[in-house]
Amino acid sequence: MKLDNATILRLAEHLETCELEARDTPKITDEHPEMDWEDAYAIQYAIRDRKLARGDKVVGLKAGLTSRAKMKQMNVEDPVFGFLADSFAVPEGGEIDIKKLIHPKVEPEIAFVTKAPLKGPGCHIGAVLAATDFVVPAIEIIDSRYRDFKFDLKSVVADNCSSSRFVVGGSATPIDDLDLRTLGVVLEKNGVAVAIGAGAAVLGHPAAAIAMLANMLGRRGEEIPAGTLILSGGITEAVAVEAGDAVSLRIQSLGTVSVRFN
Ligand code: 0L1
Ligand code: MG
User: Fold this and answer.
1) 221 exposed, middle or buried (CB, 10 Å; 0-12, 13-18, 19+)?
2) Is-above-0.85 flag for pTM?
3) Nearest-CA residue for atom 1 of ligand 1
């Protein structure tokens, strides 16, 4: 690690305050170019600790930047992971007050819920499929705290990978007879299709993102517990939204999920 503990805690407080007060900031590596990956995840975990201390619960995990479209949009090469707190959850069909966010974008995702723990290293797609209870369609709302979404990967990781809100659909689908790679995905904004894709856009198979996450956590001595909700990553590039927008996601065989911004 390159940063001392006081700096980690100060940066966590800074980024979380930006999140809670909906204001942006230059990326933190401008001030700390020496920051390494351990520092980046230490800041993210310190944000998580701040939320837990305030009574939030961690209800899930997310893999980010798992599709070529997202990597290209953000000009980065590697996936990342973050956590989901209960305060991020929005009910299906619910409304989000855009004044509480900075510059939100929506992403169409397949969310997994596990029925058995997953632990890397060595986790693979087969293990993920065996440990999956069901999948649900999900809209992730990302809202980078960095000005104009301009960042590098370490700054993104520290900022909990732009996590902001998420909405999951109400119908749980077991995966036994599904090929998640070929499921068609249509994201609509105000009734117009704005992004179209298929499950395979996420690392060739959305379960590969979950295996990657288990392996990344395994290197830290952590596992994915049974009963965890996991967003496997945006299938298309993220789409900007503004007040008045209604967003709806339809995933073949999995159903729909929607959210409005006011
Ligand atoms: O969920 C994601 O893929 C977000 C990763 C963080 C980068 C971004 O803000 O797009
Ligand atoms: Mg995402």
Assistant:
1) exposed
2) yes
3) 64
